[in-house]
Amino acid sequence: MDDQIVAPTPTDDLAVQLTIMLEAAQSAAAVAAAFTLGAGTLGRPLSSVRLAPGLYHAVSHGETSWYNFAKTALQLAKIPHEIEPVASSAYAAPAKRPRYSVLDNAKLRALNLDQMRPWEEGLKRFISAKYSA
User: Fold this and answer.
1) Which ranges of 27-86 would DSSP assign to H, the alpha helix?
2) Spatial distance between the Cα atoms of 29 and 24, rounded to a whole number of angstroms
3) Is 128 in contact with 121 (CB distance < 8 Å)?
4) Model confidence over 38-50: pLDDT tens digits?
5) Does the model's pTM come out above 0.85?
């Protein structure tokens, strides 16, 4: 779909972010440590503020259409392809989808707890792991 804008979020990045949030909710001292994910380090400075109960968004940074996401994945995997953008109206999906569903990590940023990375990094990491051998 070329008309649905999203922020694709890999589960491994989300797991690290949720761990940071859970530890911040339990103890301010626990979030002082740096977290490492795979070969990359998420060791940006973390807040010593206790995480208050509430609704927090935790998504990858940036946005893309599903069409661009698929195109980028195929390019990264070096898979020859010809795909064309398609409008959502071309499919009779049982549920109507929003055209723009990108969430904002504003509350996490305000607490200096936003450790999410750009969606492109997660996709590159996945493709590299899947197609290297």
Assistant:
1) 66-76
2) 8
3) no
4) 444 455 445 456 7
5) no
Digit-coded pLDDT (tens) for 63-97: 999 999 999 999 999 999 999 999 988 888 888 88
Cα 11 from Cα 114, distance rounded (Å): 15
Amino acid at 122: G
Reported as half-sphere exposure (CB side, CA atoms, 13 A), residue 12 has a value of 15
Cβ atoms of 17 and 116 within 8 Å: the answer is yes
pLDDT score recorded for residue 132? 76
Give CA separation, 49 vs 10, 30, 129, in Å.
Answer: 26, 11, 36
**What is the distance, to the nearest Å, from the Cα of residue 54 to the centroid of all Cα atoms in its chain?**
20
The alpha carbon torsion through 9, 12, 17, 21 (nearest 10 deg) reads 120
- Cα separation, 7 vs 103, in Å, equals 8
